[in-house]
Input
Amino acid sequence: MLPPVFIKGQLVLAIDGGKYKFTNVKIAESGVSGLPWGTLSSRAQTGKKGYVLINHANETLKMAAVIMTERTRSGETMGLRFLPGSDNAPALRETIARNGFYPTDYMRKYPRIPAATSVQTFPLHVLASIDDTQIIFDVSNLSPSGILIATQSALARSIVPGHRIALTLDPRGWFPRQIHVTGLVCRIIEDIDLASGNTIYHLGIKFTRVDEVNKMFFLDLLRDILEKIRPASSK
Output
């Protein structure tokens, strides 16, 4: 049985002296996505800090949060990233474990593998090429069908959902070569790095084309990564 990752509840966002109520919201330990902007503005509010009141099953939890912008080909929505270290973070985690659910409205075909510096071959960086621009991204997670990458480079500002992008994955350690794939930008999240003040551009990319040679090396890389992260009891 898959572990619960969401609860549903009412959420009140307090920002810039105003309060904004959202009902029937799916709330995760890390935050909330897919909220309508309403009278708020992505240009004005992205990166601002506020707090949210989460009401679930007669319990109210207060969490500090940062506003994010989420873009797909179908439109733009607001996301909230809960800040680490909140006094109520353990209580939210416990509430999700006790009363939460795993989503059934979508199922990923393949699990995402979080970037791991401890895995010798895991590629921590990728070179993305679009038109005449090349940008180095950090890898957040990887799967057989796609990748989540992030950068603080302002060059990424021109990338929009629907763009085709050429990627060069740079495995580490003993792995013998780089891997070249082409992907489709499906989702972009704009966040703020609180230390530097820079905008962070997170790109969710679906692989759309890989030739046979690169496919062979990519599958070899995935096998090595999965072997290293597999629990010892299952080996």
Remarks:
- The helical segments are 42-45, 89-99, 212-229.
- Residues 212-229 form the longest helix (18 residues).
